[in-house]
Amino acid sequence: MHAITIPEPGGPDALVWAEVPDPVPNEGEVLVEVAASAVNRADLLQRQGFYDPPPGASRYPGLECSGRIIALGAGVHGWAVGDEVCALLSGGGYAQKVAVPAGQLLPVPDGVDLVTAAALPEVAATVWSNVFMIAHLRPGETLLVHGGASGIGTMAIQLAKAIGAQVAVTAGGPEKLARCAELGADVLIDYREQDFVQELRKATDGKGADVVLDIIGAKYLDQNVKALATNGRLAIIGLQGGVKGEINLNALLRKRAAITATSLRARPLGEKAAIVAAVREHVWPLIAAGRVRPVVDRTFPMDRAPEAHTALDEGSHIGKILLTVN
After folding, report:
1. Looking at residue 205, what DSSP letter applies?
2. CB 141 within 8 Å of CB 166
3. DSSP string spanning 115-160?
4. Cβ neighbours, 10 Å, residue 179
5. N- or C-end of the chain: fewer Cβ atoms within 10 A?
6. Cβ atoms of 2 and 18 closer than 8 Å
7. Nearest alpha-carbon partner for 215 in 197, 238, 231
8. Residue 281, by phi and psi: left (phi above 0), alpha (psi -120 to 50) or beta?
9. 126, pLDDT greater than 90
10. β-sheet bridge partners, residue 147
């Protein structure tokens, strides 16, 4: 088969479409013929040499895919050759075939085509696990989403609105904010022009956000604590703004607030399977009903992965960027 390899870390041109050995499914795994994968920030970091796959995972980038099952490993039940699926991966999505633990498979949702389904597993699993399973966002509460026009952001807006929460977003520029509004965002904050703490307080009568979903990290740490409501929960899932920051613990104590930080890729198989099962139970019916939908900005053929990485890095996209296998 062919896969995107990284002979040497570097810029987008470090991604090389090359012939490699076919993967073989181990016990409890299935082999998927890939129709599409998606580009995530973690892929850019891996390409640069900063984010290696966990032990035992495929060395090729790609944290999610869609496709058809072409072989079953020993001990796999509930799936059959020919099933159309999408999957959460620890790596290997940028390839024509990938071996996937059966617990990380999802059926392609009703109303979604096979290629577009590649836009769903990582964002759905990330948002559901952090915003709902850990931070316990409830109806009537306020969620602040940083990067509202990103793949994560577009999914978070829709899921929070579906359960009856108010949603505030930060994004860069009127076009991105308009798209966030179309998805249901109530409070639109241009981080280039506005102070999100002040704007959030205005919109919530001084209360703040019950949950903050943050992809920025250190740069926003102090402001995020200020933005939290009493009993608020800050969920950090990205480090685009750095890894080290100072925090006012007294402010955190006064608000009886909590901070969590998670990554999905290196979690044990059992934890990933539990998250995927929860996504199938809670998110998939919303997609089938048309209340939540994948948002795809554009697609590239897999052998043009360098262009796709450049597009993600430029930051002008809204939603997901996909790579397709012809």
Report:
1. T
2. yes
3. TGGGGSHHHHHHHIIIIIIIS---TT-EEEEESTTBHHHHHHHHHH
4. 21
5. C
6. yes
7. 238
8. alpha
9. yes
10. none
Angle at 111 between CA 107 and CA 114, to 5 degrees: 55
CA dihedral over 17, 108, 177, 247, signed as positive or negative: negative
- Averaged over 274-297, what is the pLDDT? 98
DSSP 54: P
Which residues, in sequence order, are CB contacts of 317 under 8 Å at separation 6+?
149, 297, 298, 311
Side chain identity at 116, as an amino acid letter?
Answer: T
Of how many residues is the chain composed? Answer: 326
Report d(CA 56, CA 49) in Å as an integer.
Answer: 17
pLDDT digits (tens, 9 = 90+) for 8-51: 999 999 999 999 999 999 999 999 999 999 999 999 999 999 99
Separation between Cα atoms, residue 207 and residue 231, nearest integer Å: 11
**Cα 99 to Cα 92: distance, rounded to the nearest angstrom:** 8
pLDDT digits (tens, 9 = 90+) for 299-315: 999 999 999 999 999 99
**Number of neighbours of residue 7 by Cβ within 10 angstroms:** 9
